[in-house]
Write a structure and sequence with these properties.
The chain is mostly helical. The protein has two helices and two strands, in the order H-H-E-E. The protein has one domain. Strands 1-2 form a two-stranded antiparallel sheet. The chain is rod-shaped and about 80 Å long.
Length: about 70
């Protein structure tokens, strides 16, 4: 007699083969999404802050603000 003490594992083993594969696939995808999300989160935390002002030659600009109108 096969006795399984864990209720969730017992439920999973009682299912059909296709259901076991489907549940395993969903759990694997969930684990991969969590792993990839945590890698991106840590990567975003280690990036430096964007510059407050950009200088290029004698031109400068502030990100997010419209360019000055020099047609005057």
């Amino acid at each position: 007699m096969n006795v399984v003490t864990n209720r969730w594992v017992g439920w999973l083993l009682a299912q059909t083969r296709l259901t076991r594969y489907a549940v395993s696939a969903v759990l694997l995808h969930l684990a991969l999404l969590i792993a990839i999300g945590s890698i991106k989160f840590v990567h975003d935390l280690t990036q430096p802050a964007p510059p407050k002002e950009i200088h290029w030659g004698n031109l400068s600009a502030v990100p997010g603000e419209p360019a000055a109108d020099d047609s005057g």
